[in-house]
Amino acid sequence: MALITILKKTEYTLPESLLADAPEWFIDIISVRVTNVHAPHIRPEEIPEIDKILLGKRDHDQWFHDVYNEDKTPLENLQSQFYDGDDYGISFHRIEHIFELTFEDFEVAKAMLKWDIFYRVLIQHLHNTRNQHKALKNEVEVQSYGKRIDAVVRQRNISLDILDIIPLGDLKFDLHWFTANGAIDFVKKLVWEVTASDTILKTAALEIPLLTGHGSHTDRKVSEIQRLLLLNFEGHIRKHDSNPGILILCFEKKRMYSEILSENVI
């Protein structure tokens, strides 16, 4: 059975207050349930704000108009439709990763990519609001919105509860837009889940890519998340050989008890 599949077109189970004035694109996304893809928490009053953000995106129209070009591969069609190079956009690499997670099922990948639009515009709204509270020195709200941001970014990634059923080559995580503390906590939990696993994760030598970006949108031109991860996980994380926006989380191969016994057999 595929790891991620469309379950069904569904009747809306969200509160009527959330759907009363919801835009068409919002309804289009939440009306398709996808396994292992979960709806983030959103307040009714936030829907007009995320709608405004989406309508301000240069290519938003093409994301919801499905036109298949027979001269392109399924992956190329998805990349043509959904690529967004803006600050809260999605890369060709991320689109390819989603396609691989769905075992190259075009329709399921398309549904996932639409859900990803929802995640990204909500994350952008939450960061905007958090920054406003930062400027006003409302620390309680800053902390509250930080927790919400981290929760949505976690949902945007593979759930750490299902690592054992993910093909090892598909284990990669996008840490863009986490708060700094949220990224560190996420990687700590990832390390714990891998080391506590009783399946192949327990013994495999793993190199798990962590997409952090490289701070191109910051004054320092350095990713704060990347800097802190290298500091906190020294010896276990290294920079990617050729891509400055990726870190590699490393796990050495662990020896099985049977292997140790066999070495001692005379």
TrEMBL record:
Under the heading InterPro entries, the entry gives: Smr_dom_sf (IPR036063)
Q: Which domain of life is it from?
A: Eukaryota
Q: In its UniProt entry, what is this protein called?
A: Smr domain-containing protein
